User: Which sequence fits this backbone?
């Protein structure tokens, strides 16, 4: 039972961190799209990139704080795995937002759907590959 509760607490923490990251992502996406007049796919890359920096720090310190603490080399490897997971998510999100907006879907609705998809990809990528949490 304790493991089950811990599992849901982690998901709630991930969701809270995700809200902060999403706010950063959406803010930068909007600024890039509306003020700099970037194409949606380019604005997605800039916004997403901003959010992942915030994401690593908060997930490391808060969501997956029970992960094994590592030396500097281990932390560098962990960050590299984090970049790989987010690189895959960024590629998926950029392709999807370009596809959805190409179909005529409003860019902010497309962004919202894409954010949901990448959130699921990232949770499992972080849990399994980056922070290597193995729960019962």
Assistant:
């Amino acid at each position: 039972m304790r493991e089950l509760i811990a599992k849901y607490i982690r998901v709630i923490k991930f969701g809270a961190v995700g809200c902060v990251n999403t706010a950063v992502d959406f803010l930068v996406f909007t600024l890039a799209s509306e003020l700099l007049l970037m194409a949606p796919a380019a604005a997605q890359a800039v916004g997403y990139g901003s959010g992942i920096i915030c994401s690593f720090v908060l997930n490391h310190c808060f969501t997956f704080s029970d992960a094994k603490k590592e030396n500097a080399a281990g932390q560098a490897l962990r960050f590299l795995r984090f970049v790989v997971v987010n690189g895959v998510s960024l590629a998926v999100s950029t392709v999807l937002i370009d596809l959805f907006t190409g179909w005529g879907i409003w860019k902010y609705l497309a962004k919202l759907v894409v954010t949901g998809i990448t959130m699921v990809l990232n949770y499992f990528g972080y849990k399994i590959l980056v922070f290597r949490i193995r729960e019962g």
